[in-house]
Amino acid sequence: MSELTQKIERAVKSPFFDQTGRSGHSSSQCTILKLLLEGTCSFDCAYCEICTKHKGISFTPEEAAHGFLELHREGKVGGLLLSTGIPRGDTDLGMERITETARLIRKAGFTGYLHLKVLPGAERSDIEELARYATRLSINLEAPDASHLAELATVKNFKSDLLTRHKWLSEIMPYKHSTQFVVGAADETDADIFQTVMTSYEKYRPARVYYSAFSALSHTPLESHENTPLWRANRWYQVDALLRLYGYTRKETAPVFDEDGMLINTDPKLLLAKTLPQVNLAEATFDELLRVPGIGVVTANRIIFERKTGNIRTTAALKRCGVVLRRALPYLSLEKTHQMRLSSFE
What we know:
By secondary structure, the protein is α/β, with parallel strands linked by helices. Strands 1-2-3-4-5-6 form a 6-stranded parallel β-sheet. A two-stranded parallel sheet has the order 7-8. Helix 7 links the parallel strand 5 and strand 6.
């Protein structure tokens, strides 16, 4: 291992509040290297350790590009998530360095995944230049609105520095950009997050939204703040899938929140299915099928195809379509048969 890649390994051990680009795969081809070009920052994000450091590990664009390419050639990483701290508040310089790093990586022939972070307050022309090299761009909203962001950072303006850039990304790279929330850091409710997430999907067309459960770090202003339980962020990913993949509306998603506006710690699809009548597989629409636990997009399409070619009422046909029978059974009706014994599906 070279000195440069050892330096990268030391740098990536620092806590980095960014779940964007996360992958559930463990193979090196899917491993995303998360790297900060500058290990210190003049911003004052209360949850971030980088903002409290007087010294940090930093990389020139040349070092970052060469180090990543070396790790890629060795089969240790498959893509790159690149951001930077903002020393002296110089957003323009930070964007310039990210862009130059990406340019060098592409010039070397790398055609894979490059997720590049847009800095708060970045110029539109700089974002457009960055987009030339990016697989995905993102800017993190972090909080659901201006009042909650003010609890976390005084330097960032929610509307002008973040939301306006989020809008620009939807115009520059529609469906190829993302954002993130640090869940629980500002004591926001999940209903607060929900309104902003829904507006984001409706107006700004992100590829997806990420959710990072707040975890208090020593020597930060929020070091004594209660940690957010991981289940809350995980439930947010489940709710997000209902919105993004299954087309759930604001109104029909409302029951996943309790009277205080917090997510209920139950599978949201199961929770919402309990309010619906049983679904008749012989007649259900695509959207109705998606509301059944144990049936996803691919399975719903297979069911509709099977209905055109033959009988969909048998156990074999349901299994062939990919229905998770133990989850789906209580919510299904096969034409006139409204109740079936579980054993018939085993």
